[in-house]
Amino acid sequence: MSKPILWTSTRTSGTIVHSMAAVSGLDIDVRFISLRAGDHKAPDYLTINPKGEVAALQLPDAGVTITEIPAMAFWLAEAAPDSGLLPRDAIGRAKGMEWLCWCHFRMANVFMPAFQSRLLTGGDEAAADVVRAAAAPRARDALAFADAALAKMANGTLLGTAQVSAPDIFLGSLLRFATFLGAATDDLPHATALAAKVAAHPAIIAALAREQEIG
After folding, report:
1. Which of 34, 54, 74, 142 is 20 to 30 A from 18 via CA?
2. Do 182 and 109 share a domain, yes or no?
3. What's the domain range around 127?
4. Same domain, 96 and 43
5. How far apart are CA 197 and CA 164, in angstroms?
6. 139-187 pLDDT tens trace
7. 191 and 208 housed in the same domain
8. SS3 track for the chain
């Protein structure tokens, strides 16, 4: 059998999936490509993922590639049911998917416009500054919603589980993105504590160290 292949890039949303893959404990071939070098638009990569994006989870034996973070998280959880990425019960899994979709939409709707502000404004620096400035309070509001939800949950996790779940990993990354945007998060104790818990996971520490080595 061939190993699943995770195509990703450092310092991108692909890091979220890389972290989930590390927590899964599955034997996955992680391959890094450079967005700056345009590897994601190369013909060979486009045959794997026609969207020209990362991350992408290639399953050679099945002849398919899975994209989009919630879908990849679901596959990882199915392939590694003891990993804690998603609960085993139907309601727990549904709530996990609910949070994954929430995080995914907020990343696309709130965070990505700021990170791609020059592209969205056609290189207009003044307009790009406006987009970035508007993103910080919106990011803070999104995280405040998650913080309030965490305050009601056991174990300080989104699903109330003792183990770090896929939604927890995603939310921890969003909080890190928010700091890049200059959003105030010091008054969000539950989200901050969860992000620290995610960052302290040994598998995630190893995954991030590998990305740091690659640069």
Report:
1. 142
2. yes
3. 90-200
4. no
5. 8
6. 999 999 999 999 999 999 999 999 999 999 999 999 999 998 888 899 9
7. no
8. CCCCEEEECCCCCHHHHHHHHHHHCCCCEEEECCCCCCHHHCHHHHHHCCCCCCCEEEECCCCEEEECHHHHHHHHHHHCCCCCCCCCCHHHHHHHHHHHHHHHHHHHHHHHHHHCHHHHCCCCHHHHHHHHHHHHHHHHHHHHHHHHHHCCCHHHCCCCCCCCCHHHHHHHHHHHHHHHCCCCCCCCHHHHHHHHHHHCCHHHHHHHHHHHHHC
Helix axes 189-199, 202-214, angle to 10 degrees: 70
Distance CA 57, CA 48 (A): 9
Contact 5, 64 (CB under 8 A): no
The CATH number of whichever domain residue 136 belongs to comes to 1.20.1050.10
Q: How many domains does the chain fold into?
A: 2
Residue 192 pLDDT: 97
Q: How many CA atoms lie within 13 A of 37 on its CB side?
A: 8
Do 139 and 50 belong together in one domain? no
Residue 95 and residue 64 share a domain = no
